[in-house]
Amino acid sequence: VKEKVLGILKENSARYVSGEHISEALGVSRAAIWKHIKDLKKEGYVIIASSKKGYSLVSVPDVLNSYEIIYNLKTGIIGSNIIYREEIDSTNNYAKKIASEGCKDGTVVVAECQTAGRGRLGRMWDSARNKGIYMSIVLRPEVAPEDVQIITIAASIAVAEAIRDITGMEAAIKWPNDIILDGKKVCGILTEMSSEMEKVNFLVVGIGLNVNHSREDFPEELANTATSLRIYAEQNSTGTAPAELDFRLNRSSLVKAVLTEMENVYCMVNNGNTDEVVRQWKEYSVTLGKEVLITSKSAEYRGFAKDITKDGRLIVDCSDGVTREVMSGEVKVRGLLGYT
Amino acid sequence: VKEKVLGILKENSARYVSGEHISEALGVSRAAIWKHIKDLKKEGYVIIASSKKGYSLVSVPDVLNSYEIIYNLKTGIIGSNIIYREEIDSTNNYAKKIASEGCKDGTVVVAECQTAGRGRLGRMWDSARNKGIYMSIVLRPEVAPEDVQIITIAASIAVAEAIRDITGMEAAIKWPNDIILDGKKVCGILTEMSSEMEKVNFLVVGIGLNVNHSREDFPEELANTATSLRIYAEQNSTGTAPAELDFRLNRSSLVKAVLTEMENVYCMVNNGNTDEVVRQWKEYSVTLGKEVLITSKSAEYRGFAKDITKDGRLIVDCSDGVTREVMSGEVKVRGLLGYT
Hints:
2 copies of one chain form a homodimer.
Chain A: H1 2-11, H2 19-26, H3 30-42, E1 46-50, E2 54-59, H4 66-70, E3 82-85, H5 91-100, E4 108-111, E5 132-139, H6 149-167, E6 172-174, E7 178-181, E8 184-196, E9 200-210, H7 229-236, H8 251-270, H9 274-284, E10 291-295, E11 300-308, E12 314-318, E13 323-326, E14 330-333
Parallel strand pairs in A: 3-4
Antiparallel strand pairs in A: 1-2, 4-5, 5-9, 6-7, 7-8, 8-9, 10-11, 10-14, 11-12, 12-13
Helix pairs in contact in A: 2-3, 6-8, 6-9
C-alpha cells in the first residue's frame, strides 16, 4: 500500500492530492494513508500537507528502495522482481542464494551498503553507504557454460550505455568488463555462475558503480585508479557553478537505465545475436589497438590488443611474435588505471 | 565417543573386549559405554555381551555412516570431512550449500536415500533407500573454469577403478561420465560448478552408484538401461551358489575405494598431469572406436568416436565428412544403453 500511496503522490508530483482521493483510490482508511505518509517522510520523502488540499510530494530522496526503482521501469524480465536491503554482506552472495532456491530470471538485489563487497578474484570492493550502486542481477540465459563470457560483455555494454543515457559522459569499456571514465575505473562487474558441465543453472552479474563518491570517499591507494560520476561531473563542469550545487546524481534513475539497457542486450544474447553484442562492445572498447600487458600464472606478455573473438576472448599480437587468445587473467592497458 | 567405542570393537573384531578396558581407554564411565553399545545395536551392529568377558562385535551392518567410511580410510584430502544423512533431498544440493559457506576441499556428503536425487540436465535419479551409494564430493581444484571437464573425467576413472578394486568387475566409461557394466548404466556422475569467469569457486561431483538393487528395484522403463553391481554379480556367478547368498556388496568398502581412487586422480589434476588422466580414461573407454549418435539442440550427427582432446572433448568423424569436437549434448553409443 505504501508503494501505491507513493505512486499516486508521484503521478501528482508537486500538486496536492486529497487524503480522501487516495483513500478511495486504494480502498484504505484515511488513518492508514496518514500512517504511510509518515513512514515515507521518515525515509526522506519531503511531503507537505494542507488540511484543505491534502498532500503534495515535494522531493524524492536519493534512495534505492524497490519502489523508486520499479516506478516507471518498463522492462519485462530484468527487474521484474527487485529485492532491496539497506545493508547486506554482498549482493552477489545474496543473489546466488536466492538463485539456487529458484528465484526468477531477471531478479535484482540492490543495497545501500555492502559490508563484504567483493570484486574479481576475491578482491574487496569498496561499498560506501548511500554513495554507489551495489546490485546483482540473476540471469538464466540460453547459453552453454563455455559461452557465458558474452553475458559479462553484455553487462558492461549495458552499464556504459546507461551512463551515457543519463549523464552523457563517455564511459568506455576495458576488456573484459571494467567501465572506464577519464582513464579511471568507475564501475566493476563480477559475474559468477552456477552450472553443470552442459547447462548453466544461473548467472549472477554483480555491478558496483561509483556514483556520488567524493575524492575523500576513496582510500588513498585508489586515488589514481578509481573515480565516480560525481567527481567526473565536478571536474568537467565549465563556468561557475552555484555554490550549493554538489554534482550528486540520482541513483535510482541510473539503476533504471542500467536495467533497461541490460534487458536490451540480454534479449540479444538469448536470441543468439551475439555478433551484435560484440560489435557494440568494440564501439565502447578502450582496449583494442592499445598496448597491453598480460599477466597469467605462468608468464607475462606484452603486445597489442587486436580484436575480440565472437565468444569474447581478447586477441593479442604479442611482442614475441605469437598471437594469443586471452580468456582470463590480468590485462593492463597502457594509459589506463595508472599503468604508464 | 560412539565412534571410538566402535573403533575399539573393530580392532578386536570377533574377540571380546571388557567394558573396563574400553572405559579406561576412552576415559568414560562404563555406564556411558553401555549406552553407546545400545545405540550401535540399534543401528544394526551385532554386538554380543558376556558379563565376564565383555563385548564382541560380531557383524557390521551395511550402513554408510561417517564412522564406517572413515574407519581405515587413508586419504588426505578426499573425505577429510564426511557428512552423513539418512535422508536428504539431494546430496549435490547440500554439498553446494556447504561449499558456498566455505567447507573444505574434499568434503563428502553421503546419504542412504535421496528424496529428490538429480541426474544430468535436470533429470531424476532413482535413489532407493539403502540400495545405492549417493554421495557428493566438494572440490576446490587448481583449474580454470574452461578446463573443469577434466574433473568429471577424473571422477569417472575413480569410480570405474574402485569397482574393479573391490569386485573385479570390468566397469567401463561411456563419454563423458557414465559408468557401464554389461552395456548398462551402473553409475551416473553429475558435476556442478560455481565459478567466476576466471576462477572456479568450487565443484561438486555427485556420484550415484547402483550397488544392491535387485531387478525389481528399478522402474520398468530402466530395465534395459540400468543395472547394479548385485544384479551383475548374480548373473555372472558360476556353479551353484548357496541358497542364502544374495550377492549384496558392502557399500562402505566401495565408498572408501571411490574416495581413495578419487584422491589419486584429483592429485594428478592438481599437479597438471592431465595427460595421464586422459590416458587412463581412454583405457576405460567404451566410446572410442564406436559408432555414435550425437544430438544437440540444433542438429543430429552420426559418426565414429575417434579420440578425446586433452581437455576432454570427444572427437567424432561424422558421416557428413566433418570432424567435430563435442563438448556437451547427448552422445549415444551403439550397443550401449539400449541403443541398437
